[in-house]
Design brief:
Helix content is 52%, strand content 12%. By secondary structure, the protein is of the alpha/beta class. The protein has a five-stranded parallel β-sheet with strand order 2-1-3-4-5. The longest helix is centred in the C-terminal third of the chain and has 20 residues, at 162-181. The protein is globular.
């Protein structure tokens, strides 16, 4: 019981910090909505649990979140096992997302990059490639890390426990989905 209560208490503390970041979420939603309304697409990348966040976010946009609307152009770069394994084999795992950004990304598109550390090499390379082709980069991270220097918008959570960071990322995804959906 004590452990459970401590986890819940830590989650509440993280939520209190989150409340101070609503302006960042508002900016991110406006950037994403603007891109989508201008015929652009959203590309998402992340590793491990963050890869699952990418797939979840893309699914809510291409399908629906809470209400009927047209599908929105979003693609998780974490789902194509043939692309992931061929790029990893022929180049390196560090290039797994940047090669896909190079192939699929266009000026005005948005890259959403999840990284709890903010320092994953394959995420940094993807963000650098996105900037090179004039995409917007929105990152969700822990304490920031190197990804913040590649980001137009960075939503960071300075938490010591990865699970708390991931919980805040999940909430951010749901908030963004609702804000985006309200614009269509």
């Amino acid at each position: 019981m004590k452990k459970i209560n401590q986890i819940i208490e830590d989650h509440k503390k993280a939520l209190c910090k989150f409340e101070k970041k609503s302006d960042i979420l508002a900016e991110a939603s406006l950037t994403i909505v603007s891109a989508l309304k201008n015929g652009k697409k959203i590309l998402l990348c992340g590793n491990g649990g963050s890869a699952a966040d990418c797939q979840h976010f893309a699914a809510e946009l291409t399908g629906r979140f809470q209400k009927e609307r047209k599908g929105l152009a979003a693609l998780a770069l974490t789902t194509d096992t043939s692309a992931i394994t061929s790029i990893s084999n022929d180049y390196s795992f560090e290039d797994v997302f940047s090669r896909q950004v190079e192939a699929l990304g266009r000026e005005g598109d948005v890259l959403i990059a999840f990284s709890t550390s903010g320092n994953s090499k394959n995420i940094l390379k993807a963000a650098a490639k996105a900037k090179e082709i004039n995409m917007k980069v929105f990152s969700l991270t822990g304490a920031g890390g190197k990804i913040s220097s590649y980001s137009d918008i960075c939503l960071s959570f300075d938490e010591k426990v990865t699970a708390r960071i991931q919980e805040m990322h999940s909430l951010a995804v749901h908030i963004l989905c609702e804000l985006i959906e309200d614009s269509f």
